[in-house]
Amino acid sequence: MDRQDVIIIGGGASGMMASIFAARNGLNCLVLDHNEKLGKKLFITGKGRCNLTNNSSVDNHIAHIVRNSKFMFSALNAFSPQDTIEFFNSAGLKLKTEQGNRVFPESDKSSDVIKALSKLMSDFHVKVQLNCEVLSVKKAEDYFKIKCVNNVEYTANSVIVATGGLSYSGTGASGLGFKIADSFGHKIVETVPALCPIVVKDDISNLNGLSLKNVGLTISVGGKSFYEFGEMMFTFNSLTGPIALKLSSQINRLNLNGATASIDFKPALSHEKLETKFLREFQEQNKKELKTYLNSLLPARLVPYFMQKVGIMNKKLTEITKQERLILINSLKKFDFLLKSLDNINVGIVTSGGVDVKDINSKTCESKLVKNLYFVGEVLDVDAFTGGYNLQIAWSTGYLAGNAVKKK
User: Fold this and answer.
1) Contact 379, 355 (CB under 8 A)
2) Which residue among 133, 221, 259, 389 has the highest number of C-beta atoms inside a 10 angstrom radius?
């Protein structure tokens, strides 16, 4: 195969986007991906529905980026969330906006997002080589040599690395992009899981699958506290769901030794209001058993665990002592778990860490160390909260690199 204007390594969200804009500008583009199909991680994003952006301002997106938000300023202004929406609308993909301004395909099928991107790639004559495992990238004078398995070699004037991070190894995440960056002298910021379950030391196996709504969750670690309100869920050994995942990205570089997670089951009620409520209802319903009464305050599955953990036996409300009442109130406001660790990076939704953005031009995503070498998407040390923000990072950086590549 003749030398390409640009080779994009990785056929995920950022790679596909980069190829479309580079090809639209008249460049010969080749996408190399070691999977059997394009967009493999994109396919499972948003539980298969693909929350492809957040229909909000650039400032809001910046505020939801955990690491290196300033680096993303140029990219998000060059290709905004509204540009993403217009891009997919123009590609014939009908979209809808749901709670929290999260944008999904109207069909609720991530495969339709991939189809829209694939069609554009085909329309602009982007070449794709699947099942192609890249081994190394080397610079030879003014072009690049990309060595693949089975002694296959490609050459290109420019290379865009869009290989993703380390999360979801089943989608092919291998850390290849970090190896390529390292080989060219780039610093790799330590990679840790982000948006992942928080493993606890307590035995919560009986709560597996139980969801909680409208609760407060506080992580206390090293004298610092992090709080989120909303929905969460228990697994057999961890806390997960939107607020737990968001907190995981805020504590993933802290020493979790001695850390606790505390659930406020009634964030709308103060201790004083709860005590007033208990005094009144205990008197009105004095013959009711504690277990039955707690069923009106907590999910039924949680009540036995709650009672066992706070150390109060089931009995009639009239038999509850003042001390026991205070324990119940305090536990409803602050139900503690000891933290063990964050879950494995493989189950994190995204990777935190990666190619140090100090060596990347924020206006083009080109390496400051190696001319015509670009890094986009999750391979960069940029990550955000859930809600469509991480995919917007992929679209915007892919757009920047695709537009920045020049024909020689």
Assistant:
1) yes
2) 389
Distance between CA atoms of 355 and 187, rounded to whole angstroms? 6
HEC assignment per residue over 283-350 = HHCCCCEHHHHHCCCCCCCCHHHHHHHHCCCCCEHHHCCHHHHHHHHHHHHCEEEEEEEECCHHHCCE
pLDDT digits (tens, 9 = 90+) for 264-301: 999 999 999 999 999 999 999 989 999 999 999 999 99
Report whether 306 contacts 298 (CB < 8 A).
Answer: yes
Judge contact between 176 and 194, C-beta under 8 A. no
Of residues 359, 365, 361, the one with CA closest to residue 22: 365
Handedness of CA 247, 70, 10, 57 (dihedral sign): positive
The DSSP string of 16-82 is HHHHHHHHHTT--EEEE-SSSSS-HHHHHTTTTT---EE-S-HHHHHHTEEE-TGGGHHHHHHS-HH
Burial of 362 from C-beta contacts in 10 A (0-12 / 13-18 / 19+): middle
Enter the tokens of residue 336.
């503690």
What the chain holds in terms of domains, given with CATH numbers, is 4-193+348-404 (3.50.50.60), 197-343 (no CATH)
pTM reported for the whole predicted model: 0.92
C-alpha dihedral (351, 110, 75, 360), degrees to nearest 10: 40
How far apart CA 364 and CA 131 sit, in angstroms, is 29
